[in-house]
Structure formats: structure tokens, C-alpha cells
Specification:
The complex is a heterodimer of chains A (about 90) and B (about 1000). Chain A has about 90 residues and is mainly beta. Chain A has one domain: 2-Layer Sandwich (Folate-binding fold), CATH 3.30.2270.10. Helices cover about 10% and strands about 35% of the residues of chain A. Chain A has 1 helix and 6 strands, in the order βββαβββ. In chain A, a hairpin with a 3-residue loop joins strand 1 and strand 2. In chain B, about 20% of the residues lie in helices and about 30% in strands. Chain B folds into 5 domains: about 100 residues, 2Fe-2S iron-sulphur cluster binding domain, sarcosine oxidase, alpha subunit, N-terminal domain (Ubiquitin-like (UB roll), Roll); about 200 residues, FAD/NAD(P)-binding domain, CATH 3.50.50; about 200 residues, FAD/NAD(P)-binding domain; about 180 residues, Gyrase A, domain 2, CATH 3.30.1360.120; about 100 residues, Aminomethyltransferase beta-barrel domains (Elongation Factor Tu (Ef-tu), domain 3, Beta Barrel), CATH 2.40.30. Chain B starts with 13 loop residues before the first strand and ends in a 14-residue tail after the last strand. In chain B, the strands form 13 sheets. In chain B, strands 8, 9, 12, 13, 14, 15 and 28 form a 7-stranded mixed sheet that branches. With about 1000 residues, chain B is an alpha+beta fold. Chain B contains 23 helices and 50 strands. Classes of the chains: A mainly beta (about 90), B alpha+beta (about 1000). At the A-B interface, helix 1 of A face helix 20 of B. The complex binds zinc ion.
């Protein structure tokens, strides 16, 4: 079980959090202008990397804030944590 | 049989405290401090069980948690009985009852033993190959296999014991209290670190504590007495918490570990009452030091599994720690010096050692010299080729090994014995290290896997790190501790020691025999009865990966996870396949390290505490009025209220009729309520619901449908505009938490620019829903100041009101199709409002109804229930609810998906009404719907989602989803059931009052 450093609350047990999938997938501003393929790309396509991955997490049993983490899925090491809206760190 | 093999020389056994216990129905005696294994051995009992596959007689092999054979069932009692317990770990107490398992009818006469004679027919994969065909026969085989195999019996009644969970946070966790663990715990605690030391055994000191030999000394004392002083010192340390009888069962990432602490298992049953039996410790440690020691390896030769054959170090432990001789004519068989330590211990205690068989040729050491001095015959360069004796070893045959160790040469010699100790060197206990994700490396010099890469802040020290011997421990452990704990020095830098052991080993994974290989039974996994032959067969049949060989031969898959023999399995694979062991890798060790009881895993979460349940403020009234309840999410909801001797059907028919004919009352408090405020609240609702919200007037209510981005219906409910920038949204009971989560997600991540605040107020309000033609009269009595005329308070509107001095919100909304009101009031007044409505409704026969009647009433109106009539594949169009999808809005969640190529298909499953040909025939929910019974294969068009007998329509009604159902109105379809086919007609899903006249009745 990880320890996640919530950017608002500090280090907490993983059981307080909910994973929210891949980060930095932005909802298109004008979905109606998109082709089926373009919309499908947004809707369905997710990477599932073995290695360093950018993820959304929610401190659901805490401050309820969403934020991003950078996690190595091969060993669960969390490299960094940052708030929503911030640019992804360069690795 | 009833000999006494106790020798009076152990300070760990309290000989003034005699204890009686029962094994296989017979009474025996032992002493306080004994394990079941040591007490049985003191009574000269070796045969304790039968093996799993061949039912061969098996005896105690080890003295620890790695025991593969001595697996017993504890207690007779049907609630406490516990299978698969290792006799080597059970501390005896007055009244202990244990019995052999895996034998029928008894351990001495076992029907399954016949498998042993048939063993040529039971090779690796036998069960997979044989019982797979013909498929239908499995049922016939199963009965016999289960009866003669099976590992113990589970209890049939609830567990009377108490268990609990506890969180522990510490700076340093030290696992294992052998010499290395004690040194680590002392160093850590003395340096101000909050330290926890755990050990699975009841005492501290591991195998060093009973080391009492001139050949292993520290600061001029025997290593045992030196360690005893260290232990006395650490017990005084303030920063150190010590837990014995505590076995770490899992080591997860981020130094999160689970351990089981046994608190009362060593007490007589009578005094366990009201005490916690076992505790699951959830430990979060900043640093972890693993000092789990090592396990002595067996040797692999023909018939190496007879009762009376033990691991050599176990014989030493039984003698030194428990004061028990495992036999009167002991022979030791070894490939290294460790067996000589055992021999010296036995000689010291006057226990007879007949001979030592040593694989090694021309080997010499101080220990060997000492043994030779005692006139014990040592056969150097020899191996055991066979053993004899069915229920107890009585003889061995030995032969000389060829120079290369591949063959035996010369003539066979027989030696008689009643106990054979075997020693194949040591295997580091890396189980927890690998569980944590640690990577091992193979050390070629002595053929062991040792920790290499640590995945978290942890350290392995001592034997589990491959430092088996005293000199290595005293040299390496202090240095590693300094570095790991970042401290200048430990108490152990200038320590003096003597360690007189020859570290040479002659490793032969599978010892040669004078017999043809196919005719021998060299066991590798004792618990699962797999032999070297099985492993070679698996390789011949093409299995290459270790994980596959393991599963095919079941090697290492017993409750002991093959702690003894796994390395030999790897060794034999490596030799046979010509692969390097380091490259083969090991199989994966998984938690738990030793089996856990279910009680420990669930802790206090049993019975009513199994899951959280939520009660409405009106719950007690429902109980007092004999409601039956159903679980909806975590809520307990009144399901129906049976009167007199009514069954469920009768109650629901009565409730449904009353609600339509006069008045019904429903506790709707469980519906999710979300308070939405902010200057962008209307815009927000526009984006999350399919319909338009901007023009909803203050004081009006509107039904909304919420989709996922994939266009599928997610939730529904009525939202009311309380004020310009203030709404209250209701959600389904089960969906409340998820809907709030989803809305928060969009607000925080996609639309942070919106000025909207969400608050869950589900628990803050009680909701009483009164419906039916007389509802207006009832509500006007409860809230006399409220003007209930249709002009002032029309359908789909809301009013603030007061009941006495208490504010409440009244919505005129309806889920039943009847004229109805929902009164929302501060939760703690819920019950009193409910009772007021009941009083006021008495003369109208107001009838409380539960969720089942609610479902029936809404089905008559064709209203959907999200999650019952929909799954995650239904769009609003599929539900024939096109009217609720705004064409004008530019965007809302899921809009774009409503015209994907897939969602616009004509032949999607669509919601329709279904009417049975026979109006009394009620369909089963979930039943399949087809059109043509003669077509093969029969095409499934859909299924029934809701089905009831409607007392208001006097006929059966149902909703269902049918492929292309929208265009099938009036068409005949078939519901095929087990015994008959039911004819139905596709109908409008609104069965009652399509014109909505009743809403204003
Ligand atoms: Zn937080």
C-alpha cells in the first residue's frame, strides 16, 4: 500500500485515495466538431505503461481534491505529486 | 511405543509443570514450554500424518514454521476446530486436543495408502490428465478423491473467539529475534529510534540462544550465554517494543507489513474467554530490518520421507531447547559441517549417535575431530541410497559416491537406526524480502539466493542475507547496521569471537542411487508429494518455465510453500535443462508466510459489523411496524410491511392498491441530495444533465438524466431551483456518492472556472413522500399554512413551509404517477413528521409502502430505475426518452457519444413494455427474450428488466430491453423458460394513465 503525499494534506495512506486513470487527457472544448475517431481517441484510448506514468488521484476520504502523481508502475514508486492545472514535470 | 525420551537438561522446559494433552484420542504428557511436536517426540511418537497424494506415513521433520508433514487438526469442537496447524508451532496446554489429518480411517491404517502401491500411475499432472475426461465423470471421481484426500476439516459453527486489527507506526521494524535481530533492535533503539522487534516463536534468541558449545564463543562466553545477556539488556530499552508469537505474514510496498500476533493460543480453552485470540498488526515502518534467518535443506535420496527422518538442526533444537531425544540410535547424513554441531550437542547430552554419513571426502575440521574423538564412525564420501521401515525408519543403506558424485560405487552397507538427521546446507529465508518486491542474486560459491536490490528502505542481515555463520554475522551485521541506520558505531565493533566451522559443502541436488531412477522415490516437496521424478517428467513433457513446472508438479504449492525443498527443485531443473540457476530465478513467494485464520483477517468486522449500514431517521418506526428490509447500497430500506400473515406478494398487492386508491407513504430519505450553489450553478446543470436548465423558474422542479461521456445513462433524479443561484439535486439512493464524486471531478479538473459549490446533504434531511388521491388532504392537515391549490402549488414545484416552528421544503413531485408531495425536513424531525402524516392519514387508510411497491407503481407508469432497467449500455434514446435530450444545447456530458456510429444503430437494445398472453403469468426478471424458437442457434434479443403483477391493472406487466424493440410495437415474442415458452407482446412501456391525469387528481 502506497503512501501518497496529497498536495493539500500531506502524507496519507493509499486507502484514503481513489485512482482516476491517466492524467492530462483534456476534455475537448468542442466535442461536436470532432469526428467519431477523434472523439473515440479522447473517450477510450488510454496508455497502460509499465514504467513511469502520469496519473490522476483523488483524496476521496480526505480533502476530496483531485491532483496528479507520477508513478513508476513497475515498482509503485511515486516520483512526484502536483496540483491539477500545473504542467507535468519534465522527467 | 510409550518410551520416555526426555533428557533432563533444558532450562526452557518447566519440568515442575506437567501438562496432559490428547493426540489421536490418546492421552499423553508433556511439560510447559513444549510444542506439540516436542511433546510427541518425547513420547517417542514420530508418525503424525499421511502424505497428500500417496498417503505415505509421515513424521515430524522440522522444529519450526517450515514444517511440511506434521500438520494437525486442533480441537474436536465444531466451532473451534482448526485444520492445517503445524505441530512444531503449537505450544501445548492442559486439555489440548489434536489429531492427524489427511488419513482415513486412521493414521495407522489408511485406505489412501493404497495410492502408494499405485504410484507409478500417479505422476506429475496425473489429476490434470486423468480426471479431465470424460468431463461429466468428474462428479463421480470427486466424491472419492475428496474423501481420501483433503487437508483437514473446517469448522461448521461460528468462531467463538475475538480477533482484532491494530495499526502500528514505528521508525524501525526488526523481523526475527535471532542473534542478528537482537543486535539490530538494540542498536536501533539505543540510537533513539522507535523500534519494534517481532518473532514468530515464544522466546527470543533464535537458534543461537541454545548454542552451548566451546566452538562458538563471543567475548569468551558461549554464544548462547552472551546472547542471553544481550536479551536481558534490550528488555530494558524504552524505545523498544518486543512482540513474540508474532509472525509477519506479508510485506507490501512502502514498508507496509501485516503480522499475526497470537495472544491466547497457548492458553487452556477455559481461560481464553473474552480475551482477544489473535491480532492482525498493520505495521507501517520507516525502515525495516529483516533478520529472518535460514532454513536447513534436506537431502534428496530414495525414500527420504519416512517417519524418523528429520532435518539435522531440528534434532539439535529438540535436544537443546526442549530436552528431547528424537531417537535412541541416531544417524546423521550431511554434506556440510552443520550436522556435526548436532552430533556434539547429542553427545554432550548422552544421546547415542551411531554414525555420520558425510558426502564430502577428505574433509576435516575441529567439529569433525571432536566427533571422531567420541568414537563415532564417520563415513566420508558416502551417501544414503535407501531407507527402510514403514511407520518408522529402522535401517538405512549407504554406498560410496564416485569421484564426480554422479554414481554410487562399491558395495552396499546397512546400518540400523531409529532416527536419521539430514543436512543439505542452508537456504536464506528471503520470503518476505521477495514479497516486498526485492530482487535476488544467486551466489555460486554456496548455491544460495540472497537479497540484491531493495525496493524500499530496508535491509536484510544475518542468515537471511547469506551470512550463516557466527564469524560472518559478527563481522558484517554491525557494519551494515551502521550504514543503514546512519550511526557512528554499534556495541559490536570490538567484539571477540571464536567460530570453528568448516564452511565447505559438497552439493549434489539429487543424490545417486544403485537403483534405476524410475524406481526411486526421492521426495522434494513432502507436503504435496512431488518427487525428483515428477520434475524430470515435467521437463520431458516440455515445461520450461519454473512457474509452469511448479504448477504442473505442484512443487512448492502446499501450505508450507515448499520452504524445505524448493531449492532442490530448482537445482534439478537447472541440471536437467542445462540452465544456470541464477538465470532460472525462483518461483514467487506470496503472502501469507504461514497460513492465517479467517478470524485474524476479518478482525472485528463480523456479524452486524461486517459492513457499515445506514439507517434513515425513520428506521425505528419501520422496525416497530414489522417492515422487512432490503439493502440498497449501504442503506437498510423498508422493503414491504407485511400485515398479519401476509406473504410478500400479498403485502405488495395491498400496498400498491392503497397508494393508488387513497394514500400511501414512503420513506424516501435515502435518495442522494446534493446542494448546489454559485453564480454558475445553472450553467453547471446544463453541462451535466441532458436537458436544459437555464430557464427553470425559481421554485420549480425538473427531472434530469445524467450520462457518462460515453453517452450511457448514469443517474437520474429531480433537481429543484431554490433560488437564483441555489439548487438541490436528488440522485438515486445507490448512486449518490458516485454522482457527487463525478460532479466534483468535472468541477475541479475540466471546468475550474465555474463558480459552483457542491455539498452532500443526504444525511441532513429526512424525506417523507405522501402519494395518492387523498395526499392533498393529508398534507394540508400536517401543514395547514401551506396553500395546496394547483394554482399556487402545481406539479413539479416547490414551497418553503413550516411544520410548527420547523422549516421544511415541500416538493410536489411524483415517482408513482399519483398526486404526491415530498416533505424534506431536518433529519431529526423525520420520524415525527412521518407520524404526523400517519395520524392525519388514518381516516384515509394511509398505507406505508416499501421499495418493492414503489418499484411496482413506477413500472405501471413506465418510469425507469437506473441500474435495473439500464446497465452501462443504455442511452436515453435506447430508453425511448429522446424527449429529455436537448437538441439546442451545444454540449453536455455524453452528448457527442449519442451520435457515434454505434449509438445511432437502429438495432440497439431498446426499452419496451411487455405484456404476457396470459395476464396472470408474471415473467422472471432477467429472463431472456427471443423471437424464433426454431432458429439454431437461438438468437437472444434481450432480457426482462422489471416484472410485476399489477393489482391496479389486474394483469402482469413487464419492462425489458429488446434489440430493435422500438419498431416492434405489437409484435409477438417468446420468453423461453425451463419448462415452457411464454408468449408476450411488445407494448408501450407506460401501462397506466398515459395522459398523467392522476397527477392532478
Ligand atoms: Zn488531501
Amino acid at each position: 500500500m502506497f503512501i501518497i503525499n496529497c498536495p493539500f494534506c500531506g502524507k496519507r495512506d493509499q486507502s484514503e485515495f481513489k485512482a482516476g486513470g491517466e492524467a492530462h487527457i483534456i476534455r475537448p472544448k468542442q466535442p461536436t466538431e470532432l469526428s467519431d475517431d477523434e472523439w473515440a481517441e479522447y473517450l477510450f484510448m488510454r496508455k497502460n505503461i509499465k514504467g513511469v506514468q502520469f496519473e490522476r488521484w483523488n483524496h476521496v476520504h480526505g480533502c476530496r481534491k483531485w491532483f496528479n502523481i507520477v508513478r513508476d508502475t513497475s515498482n509503485d514508486e511515486i516520483k512526484t505529486v502536483y496540483k491539477m492545472g500545473e504542467d507535468p514535470p519534465k522527467l | 511405543m510409550s518410551k520416555n525420551l526426555r533428557i533432563n537438561s533444558s532450562k526452557y522446559i518447566d519440568q515442575t509443570h506437567r501438562i496432559s494433552f490428547i493426540f489421536n484420542g490418546k492421552k499423553y504428557y508433556g511439560y510447559k514450554g513444549d510444542t506439540l511436536a516436542s511433546a510427541l517426540l518425547a513420547n517417542n511418537i514420530h508418525l503424525v500424518g499421511r502424505s497428500f497424494k500417496y498417503h505415505r506415513p509421515r513424521g515430524i521433520m522440522t522444529a519450526g514454521s517450515e514444517e511440511p508433514n506434521a500438520i494437525v487438526q486442533l480441537h474436536k469442537n465444531t466451532s473451534r476446530t482448526e485444520p492445517n496447524v503445524r505441530a512444531t508451532e503449537v505450544e501445548i496446554y492442559e486439555g489440548l486436543e489434536a489429531s492427524s489429518q489427511n488419513c482415513w480411517p486412521s493414521v495407522n491404517f489408511d485406505i489412501g495408502g493404497i495410492n502408494n502401491l499405485f504410484s507409478p500411475f500417479l505422476p506429475a499432472g496425473f489429476y490434470y490428465k486423468t480426471f479431465m475426461w470424460p468431463a461429466g465423470f468428474w462428479e463421480k471421481y470427486e466424491y472419492f478423491i475428496r474423501k481420501s484426500a483433503g487437508l483437514g476439516k473446517s469448522p461448521t459453527e461460528p468462531d467463538p473467539d475475538i480477533y482484532e486489527h491494530k495499526y502500528i507506526h514505528c521508525d524501525v521494524l526488526v523481523i526475527g529475534a535471532g542473534i542478528s535481530g537482537i543486535m539490530a533492535a538494540k542498536t536501533s533503539a539505543k540510537n533513539g529510534l522507535k523500534t519494534l522487534l517481532v518473532d514468530e516463536k515464544p522466546y527470543l534468541g533464535g537458534s543461537t540462544i541454545y548454542q552451548n558449545s566451546e566452538y562458538f564463543k563471543i567475548n569468551n562466553q558461549t554464544s548462547g550465554s552472551w546472547l542471553e545477556k544481550e536479551i536481558n539488556e534490550i528488555k530494558k530499552l524504552k524505545n523498544l517494543d518486543i512482540k513474540t508469537r508474532t509472525s509477519v505474514s506479508a510485506y507490501h510496498g512502502y514498508n507496509f507489513l501485516l503480522a499475526r500476533e497470537s495472544l491466547t493460543d497457548h492458553f487452556p480453552i477455559e481461560i481464553r474467554k473474552n480475551k482477544t485470540r489473535q491480532r492482525l498488526l498493520k505495521i507501517r515502518a520507516k525502515k525495516v530490518i529483516t533478520a529472518t534467518g535460514s532454513i536447513e535443506r534436506p537431502l534428496i535420496f530414495d525414500n527420504n520421507d519416512r517417519p524418523g527422518i528429520l532435518i539435522s538442526s531440528a534434532i539439535k533444537k529438540f535436544a537443546d531447547l526442549f530436552g528431547v531425544a528424537c531417537g535412541e540410535k541416531n544417524i546423521l547424513f550431511t554434506n556440510n559441517d552443520s550436522a556435526y554441531e548436532t552430533a556434539i550437542s547429542l553427545i554432550q547430552k548422552g544421546i547415542n549417535v551411531e554414525a555420520i554419513i558425510d558426502n564430502r571426502e577428505n574433509v576435516d575440521s575441529k567439529l569433525i575431530y571432536e566427533v571422531e574423538k567420541s568414537n563415532i564412525k564417520i563415513f566420508k564420501g558416502f551417501t544414503v541410497v535407501d531407507t527402510y521401515g514403514y511407520k518408522r525408519i529402522n535401517k538405512i543403506s549407504i554406498m560410496q559416491l564416485s569421484k564426480d558424485g554422479q554414481k554410487v560405487v562399491g558395495s552396499k552397507k546397512n546400518l540400523s537406526c531409529d532416527c536419521l538427521g539430514i543436512s543439505g546446507g542452508w537456504t536464506p529465508s528471503v520470503h518476505l524480502f521477495t514479497q516486498s518486491g526485492g530482487k535476488l542474486k544467486f551466489r555460486d560459491e554456496d548455491l544460495v539466493f540472497i537479497p540484491n536490490e531493495y525496493p524500499s528502505d530496508q535491509l536484510s542481515i544475518g542468515a537471511c542475507n547469506g551470512d550463516f555463520f557466527l564469524d560472518e554475522i559478527l563481522t558484517n551485521v554491525p557494519k551494515s547496521l551502521q550504514k543503514f541506520l546512519n550511526i557512528k558505531n554499534t556495541d559490536y565493533e570490538n567484539i571477540e569471537f571464536i567460530s570453528s566451522i568448516n564452511k565447505s559443502k559438497r552439493n549434489i541436488w539429487l543424490l545417486p542411487s544403485d537403483k534405476v531412477f524410475g524406481k526411486t522415490k526421492p521426495f522434494i516437496d513432502y507436503q504435496n508429494d512431488s518427487t525428483a521424478k515428477d520434475i524430470k517428467l515435467a521437463l520431458r513433457e516440455g515445461f520450461k518455465s519454473i512457474e509452469h513446472v511448479k504448477r504442473y508438479t505442484t512443487t512448492g504449492m502446499g501450505t508450507d510453500q515448499g520452504k524445505l525443498g524448493n531449492m532442490h527443485a530448482l537445482g534439478i531443473i537447472s541440471e536437467t535443462a542445462g540452465a544456470k540457476m541464477g538465470e532460472l530465478g525462483t518461483t514467487t513467494f506470496r503472502p501469507p508466510y504461514t497460513p492465517l485464520t479467517f478470524g485474524t483477517i476479518v478482525g472485528r468486522n463480523v456479524g452486524e459489523y461486517f459492513d457499515i449500514f445506514r439507517k434513515t431517521p425513520i428506521h425505528d418506526w419501520h422496525i416497530d411496524n414489522k417492515a422487512e428490509f432490503e439493502n440498497v447500497g449501504q442503506w437498510k430500506r423498508a422493503w414491504y410491511y407485511p400485515k398479519d400473515n401476509e406473504n410478500m406478494h400479498q403485502a405488495i398487492q395491498r400496498e400498491s392498491k392503497a397508494a393508488r386508491e387513497s394514500a400511501g407513504i414512503l420513506d424516501a430519505s435515502t435518495l442522494g441530495k446534493i446542494d448546489i450553489q454559485g453564480t454558475d450553478a445553472s450553467e453547471f446543470l446544463n453541462r451535466v444533465y441532458t436537458n436544459a436548465w437555464s430557464k427553470l423558474a425559481i421554485g420549480k422542479c425538473r427531472y434530469g438524466l445524467m450520462l457518462n461521456e460515453d453517452g450511457m445513462v448514469y443517474d437520474d433524479g429531480v433537481t429543484t431551483r431554490l433560488n437564483e443561484n441555489h439548487y438541490i439535486m436528488t440522485t438515486t439512493t445507490g448512486g449518490a456518492a458516485n454522482v457527487l464524486g463525478k460532479l466534483e471531478d468535472y468541477l475541479q479538473t475540466e471546468w475550474p472556472e465555474l463558480d459552483v459549490y457542491l455539498t452532500s446533504v443526504t444525511d441532513h434531511f429526512a424525506t417523507v413522500s405522501v402519494c395518492g388521491p387523498n395526499s392533498k388532504k393529508i398534507v394540508s392537515e400536517v401543514i395547514p399554512d401551506l396553500n395546496l391549490t394547483d394554482e399556487n402549488f402545481p406539479h413539479m414545484s416547490f414551497k418553503d413551509a413550516k411544520i410548527g416552528k420547523i422549516n421544511c421544503r415541500v416538493m410536489r413531485i411524483s415517482f408513482t404517477g399519483e398526486h404526491s408531495y415530498e416533505i424534506n425536513i431536518q433529519a431529526n424531525y423525520g420520524k415525527s413528521v412521518w407520524e404526523k402524516c400517519m395520524d392525519a392519514g388514518k381516516r384515509f387508510n394511509i398505507t406505508p409502502y416499501g421499495t418493492e411497491t414503489m418499484h411496482l407503481l413506477r413500472a405501471e407508469k413506465g418510469f425507469i430505475i437506473v441500474g435495473q432497467d439500464t446497465d452501462a449500455t443504455m442511452t436515453p434514446i435506447d430508453l425511448q426518452m429522446d424527449w429529455i435530450v436537448s437538441k439546442k444545447k451545444y454540449d453536455f456530458i455524453g452528448k457527442r457519444s449519442l451520435y457515434r456510429s454505434d449509438t445511432i444503430k437502429e438495432d440497439r437494445k431498446q426499452l419496451v413494455g411487455l405484456l404476457t398472453e396470459n395476464p396472470n403469468e408474471v415473467l422472471e426478471e432477467g429472463a431472456q427474450i427471443i423471437a424464433d424458437i426454431n432458429k439454431s442457434p437461438i438468437e437472444m434479443l434481450g432480457h426482462v428488466t422489471s416484472s410485476y403483477y399489477s393489482p391496479n391493472l389486474n394483469k402482469s406487466i413487464a419492462l425489458g430491453v429488446v434489440r430493435g424493440g422500438k419498431n416492434m410495437m405489437g409484435q409477438k415474442l417468446i420468453i423461453p423458460m425451463e419448462k415452457k415458452n411464454i408468449n408476450v407482446t411488445v407494448a408501450d412501456p407506460v401501462f397506466l394513465d398515459k395522459e398523467n391525469k392522476r397527477l392532478n387528481a
